[in-house]
Design goal:
Blueprint lengths: L1 H22 L1 H18 L6 E2 L3 E6 L7 E10 L2 E3 L4 E5 L6 E2 L9 E3 L5 E6 L8 E10 L5 E9 L1 E2 L4
Parallel strand pairs: 1-11
Antiparallel strand pairs: 1-2, 2-8, 3-4, 3-7, 3-9, 5-6, 5-8, 9-10
Amino acid sequence: MAAHRFGAILRLVGEAARVEVEFGTQSLETLARIADAVASSVYVPDSLTRTPTGLALRLANPPLRVGAFAALRLFVDGHPVPAEDVRFRTATSSTWRTAASVRTESPLDLQAGDAIDLAADLPDVPRVGPVTIRLELQSVAIPPLVWFEVRDRLRDGGAP
């Protein structure tokens, strides 16, 4: 997995260099601003909180993340959280589901603007410093994998 991630980073750096050569530095700065704007439109600022059993966060769902998803995976600081320990609910549903319940036959169906609350049970919740959260959604359509990553510090919160 680490070699695959390193290869992806090298390809990204190569593509950034190509864009910079072909279109100039301003293009790279604009792409970085667009990526930052997209990320900030997905993650609800300051929603990453420590709970009695782990952590919770909220994602606003702009039109970029719509559709039916056959799997949901959550990673905390690069470590996968078991699917049975990840819960979610959308703004249109007050019922919590586990990531283990998401399958092709029972997908997570996200609509534009349908926010999602996520909670994860973790034995060791980081106490200090920023935490990196990665959410991967396996689409039943194209593109096959939609992912989002946020780095923020945990705030004290209540039960999700």
